[in-house]
Amino acid sequence: xxxxxxxxxxxxxxxxxxxxxxxxxxxxxxxxxxxxxxxxxxxxxxxxxxxxxxxxxxxxxxxxxxxxxxxxxxxxxxxxxxxxxxxxxxxxxxxxxxxxxxxxxxxxxxxxxxxxxxxxxxxxxxxxxxxxxxxxxxxxxxxxxxxxxxxxxxxxxxxxxxxxxxxxxxxxxxxxxxxxxxxxxxxxxxxxxxxxxxxxxxxxxxxxxxxxxxxxxxxxxxxxxxxxxxxxxxxxxxxxxxxxxxxxxxxxxxxxxxxxxxxxxxxxxxx
Length: 271
Fold this sequence. Notes:
- By secondary structure, this protein is α+β, with helices and mostly antiparallel strands.
- 34% of the residues lie in helices and 21% in strands.
C-alpha cells in the first residue's frame, strides 16, 4: 500500500540516484540545509521519531525539484488537500480539517481502501447496507484501523454506538456499544460529535478528516494526545433508517504532527 512515508523515501532515493548532495537538494528546494540534518544519502532513512520529519511544505519543495516518482502521485499542495478547518476547545483541544478526497490515498491510504470496498458493496448489492460489511475483509484492507457503527436518528443527541471496536489503549478497552456517542465528553465535544453525525447523515458521501486531540477524554484517565484520520460514511439498514460507519486510523503522533502541521494550520500545541 502506498503511503506518504514511501513517497518521501522515493523522492530522496531519486535525488541520490541523480547524484544530488544534501546541500544541493536544500538549495534547489529553497529550504535551510538544517531541514535535512538527519538525511544521509546511501544510508537507511528513518521517517518519524528520531529521523526525518518534513512538513507538507518541505515535501512539496522536494516534489518541485525531483518531479514525479513511482511511489505515489504528487501531493500537490496542502491548500488543495484541505476543504475546511475547525478548532474546538473544551476539556479536549481539537484541531480538525476536512480533507479533499483526492488527498486521502496519500495521507491515509487505509481509508481509501475502505472506501473502495464500500463502493464495491454498493455496486454489487444495490446499495450500501451496514449488514453487508465484512469486518475480516475490512481488517485485511486497513490493518490497524478501528471500525465503529453509530445509530443515526433524526435527533443526533439520541445517537448511540451500535458497534464499538475496542482497543486496550483507549477507554481501558471498554466496549462502548449501546452508550451515547458523546457520553465521555463535555458540552463542546458533544456539540462537535453531534454535528459530525448530522453532517454525515445529510451528506451521504464519504467525509474524511485529519484530527488532532489533546486533553482529558474522561475524568478517570490522564490527558491524552492523539493524531488520527477518520472516515464517516452513511450506511442504510435493510430494516429502515441509517447508521454512520466510523473508521479511524491512528498515526504516529510526533511524525504526523510534524508532517501535517501545515494541514492543521500550525503545530497543534501552538494554535
